[in-house]
Amino acid sequence: MSTRPWIVDDDLWALIEPLLPPWPEKSPGPRPVADRHCLQGILYVLYNDIAWQLLPLELGFGSGQTCWRRLERWQQAGVFDQLHRILLAELNAAGRLDWSRACVDGSHIRAKKGAPRLVRRRSTGGRRAANTT
């Protein structure tokens, strides 16, 4: 393992770069920080478990705010879901996954909305007071 695991090597970058949405041509503001540098900044923050504001500018990853915005943009574009699928497929093809240890939990299964209830629920609302007269 590298002493700086937030550095993205060329092979991994070749997988990630095509998944990233293009930068808008008419975007306001200064020229954006390169996507690869932002990704390394995101990984640095996550690896070192620091606040976005504490990302050192000297590392050349851009500001923490810039990296956070890019992370949000990529998350909304579904980049990390696609990357996860690609990496799983590559690891599976190389025989590097042990599927006997895989499990599915409720956080990975979509809940059915509007499904009929099988059990009648007990009301938690207030009840009328008994008549004492």
Notes on the protein architecture:
It comes from Streptomyces avermitilis (strain ATCC 31267 / DSM 46492 / JCM 5070 / NBRC 14893 / NCIMB 12804 / NRRL 8165 / MA-4680). InterPro entries: IS402-like_dom (IPR025161), Transposase_6_like (IPR052909). By secondary structure, the protein is mostly helical. The chain has a domain of 62 residues. The protein is built from four helices and no strands. α2 crosses α3. It is extended, with a radius of gyration of 24 Å. The N and C termini lie far apart (80 Å).
Task: Give the helices and strands, then pairings.
Blueprint: H1 10-16, H2 35-48, H3 64-76, H4 79-93
Question: Main attributes?
Answer:
37% helix, 4 helices, mainly alpha, 133 residues
Helix content: 25-40%
- The mean pLDDT is 86
Series of H and E elements:
HHHH
Strand content: under 5%
Number of strands: 0
Query: Unreliable stretches, pLDDT < 50, 5 or more residues?
Result: none
Main β-sheet: number of strands, strand sense, barrel status? none
Q: DSSP helix count?
A: 4
What's the Cα radius of gyration?
Answer: 24 Å
Cα-to-Cα separation, first versus last residue: 80 Å
How would you classify the helix and strand content by structural class?
Answer: mainly alpha
Question: Can you summarize this structure?
Answer:
Helices cover 37% and strands 0% of the residues. It has 4 helices and no strands.
